Amino acid sequence: MKYFLTFCLTFIFWGAFSQQQPLVITVKDKHSFEPLPGATIVIMPGNLNIVADKEGRARAFLPLPASDSSTPLRATVSVMGYITDTILLKEGQKMEILLASRSGLLEEVAVTGAMRAVKRSASPVPVELYTPKFFLKNPSPSIFESLQMVNGVRPQLNCNVCNTGDIHINGLEGPYTMVLIDGMPIVSNLASVYGLSGIPTSLIERVEVVKGPASSLYGSEAIGGLINVITKLPEKSPLVSVDVSATSWQEYNTDLGIKYRTGKRSTALLGVNYFNYEHPVDKNKDHFTDITLQDRVSVFNKISWKRKEDRLASLAVRYVYEDRWGGEMNWNKSFRGGDSVYGESIYTSRTELIGNYALPVREKLEFAYSLNRHDQHSVYGTTLFNARQDVAFGRLTWEKKLPDRHVLLLGAVGRYTYYDDNTPATLDPATGRSKPDKIMLPGIFIQDELSINEKQELLTGIRYDYDKRHGHIFTPRAAYKLSATPDDIIRINAGSGFRVVNIFTEDHAALTGAREVVIEDKLEPERSYNVNLNYFKRMHTASYWMTLDFSAWFAYFTNRIIPDYTSNTNQIRYHNLDGYAISKGVSLNMESGFVNSLKITSGITVMDVGIADGRGNTPKRIERQLLTERWMANWTIAYTLPRLRLTLDYTGNVYGPMLLPLLSELDPRDPRSPVWSIQNIQLTQKLSSSVEIYGGIKNLLNWTPAKHAAFIIARSDDPFDKRVQFDADGQALSTPDNPYALTFDPNYVYAPNQGIRGFIGLRYKAGK
Predict the structure, then answer these.
(1) ω before 200 within 30° of 0 (cis)?
(2) Rounded distance, CA 164 to CA 167, Å?
């Protein structure tokens, strides 16, 4: 009897469960194939609601509809920031649902514009955000090179031989751009190219770009804009991440990230980057290396502590060492500093420390600090340049919410700079010995954000700094935001910026050894006055989404420091501008995505940067700035084949003509650059959730400046000017051996000399 009862119960339960079928749904990003945790899945009919776990996976047993039912089972899947999709269910199977991003970075949190975390759409200051996924569409061994993908931003090479450079924003040169790491001004002007090298992309959370003066919060150097590289929190990083790549030019790059625990309440993130290129190439046949040879290692370690009430506490240390050289193809280190074979060799050692600590008090008080030491030992032909720079920075901020919708931010800052080199910049004429610069720059600032109503925000602020060389410096700013609709945002920003000066830390041309540096006057700090109009528009339908970001700006500069390359071909003469400079223009960024897995990002900037100098009793007429393009555009086109897990990325940029520095009226090189474009293509194959391989071609058009000029480096066959004859004023003379009256000069440079090349790589990441 009991066996019969057991059989009956088993039959009943089997009959019940036979009416249910197991279903497993995994929700992923349509382009990156990353899982989307927290996805909501509503199954109809029945209104069954389930939520995906941290792996983007949801499980359910679904009752089959009656055999005579005409209503199929459907699931509506939604995730914040993604286009909702509805699909037919296939019971008893594992299903993978791929969702398209709705509007990319609209709801990302930005901190750079107002020095506090706010939603990007809520910030009165326009901030552009870029994630590592964006830069991986055209992978590069450093963020410095990757920034060429950002509209209005151009990495500028300043020397054909050693390939050092700086970052231009809206046509303004490198000294006008402040570079931050985790909000700290860790990257001094001396090291802009080094500070942006060696940061593994896998360790970057995002890059924030602000165009226009930000000196009212960030002080000197933030006169034209700033770039903030924000690294990941260790606790939110993968357990292991690896990215290795190589090119057909025999360039090798390795990024490694490892998360580990250092205690019950602390987590650390270790990152190592190694880049190596030791294969000299001379495709333009000038007997000089087309690009520098490099051996670079960077080690980054960041620790964060979990504290009560989620108070911030983090500490990061980075060390960078680089050995780079460029020059004649037969150069080696035995020729370093000699006058028989020309080479430019740079040894760089750099240590950085960054910390943030929220004080254990009821008020929101945070202390941020940074220290860095930069040692550089260089030779440029026979000229030795040895420099050391130490920078210590501290900032205490107090954020307070006040009645009537006010948010107040108060801050006290201090920056100490020690700088010494072996040039006249730090020479004491009285003793003939080196006299290092020691500069303390204290300041205070106040900022108020007022929510006028649900649609309007007003930000006002002012900063005061004191420099013993320049006295009292005030920099105010104001920003207004109107959210006409949730999809239409208008911002108006106005402000002032300033920059204190150290020529030898910002102008590589002054260090090449090819020219003598002459400082004509006691240089005063530069000032800028800027106004910016920004309009953001979002559109979205069931089949596509699109965002438009339009900006127009005007900046007016006084006391601008102008390098004069033309008065004497053997000199660079510096003076404060007796007149004014302007920068004005418009830009448009467009981002769109379609349900057919096509995504397009593009931008165009049109600008006019001019200088009106009245020195020498000449009329003040505006002349175009050298090495500044009239317009630029870029694009990223990505198409994904979801079922094959294959993504095609086509990226590129195009630049309009710019004026180039010639040595004399006889110089046969073109005074204007042509329109030029660098284009790239990449295929990425996702092998699993942890592994992907990628490869492609960079510089598809094989474009180089040498194809449009008789020569790039002046007198590359006589780099020590041994055969050049000079007149009594030091000007080169025209001779049969030197018909154009030239001297050796590697500064006629506006674009990279590296031609077409293939690349291949592998990425791996696992664990949380």
Answers:
(1) no
(2) 11
* pLDDT tens digits, 2-32: 555 555 544 444 444 445 556 788 888 876 6
Residue with token string 């592998």? 762
Q: Does residue 409 sit within a domain? A: yes
Per-residue pLDDT of 554-575, as tens digits, reads 999 988 877 666 666 566 677 7
Burial status of residue 450 (CB atoms within 10 A of its CB: 0-12, 13-18, 19 or more): middle
Distance CA 173, CA 155 (A): 10
The CATH number of residue 336's host domain is 2.40.170.20
Q: How far is CA 36 from the centre of its chain?
A: 27
Helix (H, G, I), strand (E, B) or coil at 234: helix
CA distances from 678 to 21, 586, 651 (A): 54, 22, 9
Which residues does 416 contact at the CB level (< 8 Å), separation at least 6? 390, 391, 392, 393, 438, 439, 440, 441
pLDDT at 322: 93
Q: Which helix (H) or strand (E) holds 13?
A: helix 2-17
Final residue belonging to a domain, choices 75, 99, 123: 99
Phi first, then psi, for residue 671 (nearest 5°) are -75, -10
Q: Which two tokens stand for residue 690?
A: 């942890």
- Residue at which a domain ends, from 69, 99, 129: 99
Give the whole-angstrom CA distance, residue 419 versus residue 561.
20
Structure token digits, residue 602:
């593009």
Given a contact cutoff of 8 angstroms between Cβ atoms, the answer to whether 21 and 93 are in contact is no
The answer to the question of residue 650 being in a domain is yes
The whole-angstrom separation of Cα 621 and Cα 630 is 18
pTM over 0.90: no
The pLDDT of residue 249 is above 60: yes
| The pair of three-digit structure tokens given for residue 548, joined into one six-digit string | 């438009």
**CA-to-CA separations, 232 to 35, 89, 253, 270, 351, in angstroms, rounded:** 19, 38, 21, 11, 20
State how far the alpha carbon of 9 is from the alpha carbons of 2, 6, 12, 31, 61, in Å.
11, 5, 5, 49, 21
On whether residue 585 sits in a domain, the answer given is no
Evaluate whether 39 touches 27 at the Cβ level (below 8 Å): yes
CATH code assigned at 80 = 2.60.40.1120
> d(Cα 748, Cα 709) in Å, to the nearest integer?
11
> What is the total count of domains within the chain?
2
pLDDT above 70: residue 585:
yes
* Identity of residue 704: T
For 241, the 3-state DSSP assignment is strand
What's at 82, amino acid-wise? Y
pLDDT given at position 571: 67
Cα separation, 492 vs 554, whole angstroms: 12
Q: Which range in 90-104, 218-232, 694-708 is most confidently predicted, on average pLDDT? A: 694-708
Question: What is the rounded CA–CA span in Å between residue 136 and residue 150?
Answer: 13
Domain range for 717 is: 228-564+574-580+595-766
Going by C-alpha positions, the residue among 515, 517, 620 that lies closest to residue 577 is 620
Give a yes or no: residue 485 inside a domain: yes
CB count within 10 Å of CB 456 equals 15
- State which amino acid sits at residue 416: Y
